[in-house]
Amino acid sequence: xxxRACSAMFRMEVTTIQLRDYQKECIxxxxxxxxxxxxxxxxxxxxxxxxxxHIPRKGRVLVLAHREELARQPAxxxxxxxxxxxxxxxxxxxxxxxxxVQSLVRRLERFNPHDFDMIITDEAHxxxxxxxxxxxxxxxxxxHIGFTATPNRGDKARLDDVYSEIIFQRDLRWxxxxxxxxxxxxxxxxxxxxxxxxxxxxxxxAPGELDEAMDGTADAIAQAYREHAKxxxxxxxxxxxxxxxxxxxxxxxxxxxxxxxDRAEIIERFSRR
Length: 273
Prior knowledge:
Elements: H1 4-12, H2 21-32, E1 36-41, H3 48-52, E2 61-65, H4 68-72, E3 82-85, E4 96-100, H5 101-104, E5 118-122, H6 130-138, E6 143-148, E7 165-169, H7 172-177, E8 200-201, E9 204-205, H8 207-214, H9 218-228, H10 240-248, H11 263-272
Parallel strand pairs: 1-6, 1-7, 2-4, 2-5, 3-4, 5-6
Antiparallel strand pairs: 8-9
Helix pairs in contact: 9-10
């Protein structure tokens, strides 16, 4: 239960921003659509979160996030009480509920199917997964809006089973040419691996085989880091094993996996650098 004092304190922490023209256009397009499920494509860095948190609310809103770290971000933009369905946290009838899919799919009985006027799915390219569909099948919102930078899945799963059409679309090239994102500087480094023998399943390399193929590359990756990295650096590894091997070779490096308990603290420290 939120008292007025708590609610006032919450509003003081809200981040106020000036929406860009394309964000306003996206919101207007969403408002103009009849009831249904629609997809929005917007490049990473162009403010998907700021956009969907500024969609005018007629009723309660449910925001679905793929990971806990993503679930925390939208709350700072809302000017109303926000509840969470994440791990041990539970919502209590707030205007906006932000949930991790993994938590909410196990708690659907706590909600009435008609509780939410709108569902917003962040990272909506995951929406074809069974856990997401179970949530969509349970609730009856007027609108369901998915936001993603990558509407095409590697495993060819059909997003049109969830969304009827893409109603707003901006790509990376447009964002760079329009001056909203900086140009890309790309450097290719040969770290000595061969993927020709790795099996491809559903559009992705078989994880176990990929890990084996990348074995022995940690030294070259660490060397590439020392020679080319500037400032805080994020390295994506093909497995936990490879991440740990790379971290051993870079002083101060920290491995973050699905089992890391203090992920939020680590990511926060990284973001401040």
